[in-house]
């Protein structure tokens, strides 16, 4: 090998310059990649607007006994922090993913132990007199919100179909469309999502079939077009995007109870005295607040619902 | 600047960048509806990332001879400790209102909190003895033995993450798999070293 000619050797300053140039590139490039990964995981702040903005309901009845007396959370917070495992197990990704749900046409089958079973269209559902109710909402994960729902009492629907005397429970089922529910393969729970109530719980005046919030039709991430709201129970009892309501004489299976029977009972009433096996239920973080606040018995609806559970051991029937 | 120091700079900057962005987003209120939960989760995940990075140094040296990484290992471990400390302070202030009794009873009652706290307590002496002076004082052998506890810290960290998840175990499983691969590589080299009658440990390689 012949040694290179003196003037072929890259002069040192130029060599160092090139090295610095490459280093600057590596530096900037790696930082950019790290930043992009960070961005990919950071929550989206604003929900994408649905193709058509949810229709407003117009004038709604507001009965004083159903206004929580607390400031509701913002529309942005309510529609950007959701548990809807069919679409994503990340609460901040549901708003984006759930837009794939097809809510038109929609029908809800109501049957089982009833005298007049029927199938409701979306229009039938919206024909019930709608009212606004501001309820506290307490998730089993120890966070909470205050939400101005729109809807009508489940009792109004049950009166129409007339449960027979054998009927003791109501079973609910969420729509299940694998083609749009991309997370349903890995979420770790079984689908379709199912829930249930005792008939007297279902007939309680607080129990709501919600069709909207903030005076607009229900956003998809919140369970469009119709969902249950049971304000004294943990949020997962308030099943979303309902397609079936069946009256039965046996306690119906419920999704989270199937997934982890020791952690989630059939009743799942909000109860600060009975902890989740893995975390405390004594306090909760109200979305928008920095520190935690005390959780109230039956989520603050003790006066209204305590009679339903008179004589029951709530540690056993959690 | 030599290559080892440049690599250290790159790793350090990229490890601290998420913290900077998190603090910036927290200050500009763009961490979603529940910023504290997000901040807690993010600092917890970053602790695991830094722990795995620290534990990846030796396997990478053995596999590819990247001995240059050893100069960054202490920093990676300390960054894991930094993220873990921020995680713990965030939990203590915002979840427990700085109430020591509440924290102690949380540790006593909740296994996943106890496991996380154990991970921090094991990490503490490792962080304290990370100086050159401490290595001298303890002697290389003892120091190495003590710092093998970093494996335990990583296991406790992954278990802590696994225990808090409700049903979707994808990310905890990802970290567990990463940890298993790193352990597997170590075991493999330990076995081959024994077969060849060498002391387990890193054979010196010429550059």
Structure annotation, total helices of chain B: 9
Number of strands of chain B: 0
**What global shape of chain B is seen?**
globular
Helix content of chain A: 10-25%
Q: How much is the average pLDDT of chain A?
A: 92
Low-confidence stretches of chain B: 203-207
| Subunit arrangement of the protein | heterodimer
CATH first level of chain A: which class? Alpha Beta
What number is the mean pLDDT of chain B? 91
* Distance from first to last alpha carbon of chain B: 18 Å
The CATH superfamily of chain A is identified as Oxidoreductase, molybdopterin-binding domain
Q: Mind describing the biggest β-sheet of chain A?
A: 7 strands, mixed
Q: Give me the strand/helix succession of chain A.
A: HHHEEHEEHEEHEEEEHEEH
Q: What is the structural class of chain A?
A: alpha+beta
SS-derived structural category of chain B: mainly alpha
Termini separation of chain A: 84 Å
Strand content of chain A: 15-25%
Q: What is this structure's SSE topology?
A:
The complex is a heterodimer of chains A (318) and B (207).
Chain A: H1 12-41, H2 75-78, H3 94-97, E1 107-112, E2 118-121, H4 122-127, E3 131-138, E4 143-153, H5 154-161, E5 169-174, E6 194-198, H6 199-203, E7 208-213, E8 216-217, E9 227-229, E10 242-248, H7 255-259, E11 283-286, E12 293-294, H8 302-305
Parallel strand pairs in A: 1-10, 4-11
Antiparallel strand pairs in A: 1-2, 3-4, 4-7, 5-6, 5-10, 7-8, 7-9, 11-12
Chain B: H1 3-27, H2 35-64, H3 70-95, H4 100-109, H5 111-128, H6 132-138, H7 140-147, H8 149-164, H9 170-195
Helix pairs in contact in B: 1-2, 1-3, 2-3, 2-8, 2-9, 3-5, 4-5, 5-8, 6-7, 8-9
Brief sketch in words of this structure:
The complex is a heterodimer of chains A (318) and B (207). By secondary structure, chain A is α+β, with helices and mostly antiparallel strands.
Protein model, in words:
The complex is a heterodimer of chains A (318) and B (207). Helix content of chain A is 21%, strand content 20%. Chain A has eight helices and twelve strands. In chain A, the strands form two sheets. In chain A, strands 3, 4, 7, 8, 9, 11 and 12 form a seven-stranded mixed β-sheet that branches. Chain A has a five-stranded mixed β-sheet with strand order 2-1-10-5-6. The N and C termini of chain A lie far apart (84 Å). Chain B has one domain. Chain B has helices spanning 3-27, 35-64, 70-95, 100-109, 111-128, 132-138, 140-147, 149-164, 170-195. By secondary structure, chain B is mostly helical. In chain B, 80% of the residues lie in helices and 0% in strands. The chains are: A alpha+beta (318), B mainly alpha (207). The A-B interface holds A 23, 26-27, 30-31, 34-35, 38, 41-45, 73, 76-77, 80-81, 85, 89, 91-92, 141, 143, 183, 186-189, 259-260, 275, 278-280, 285, 287-288, 290-292 and B 6, 9-10, 13-14, 17-18, 21-22, 25, 30-34, 36-38, 42, 94-95, 97, 106, 109-112, 163-164, 166-170.
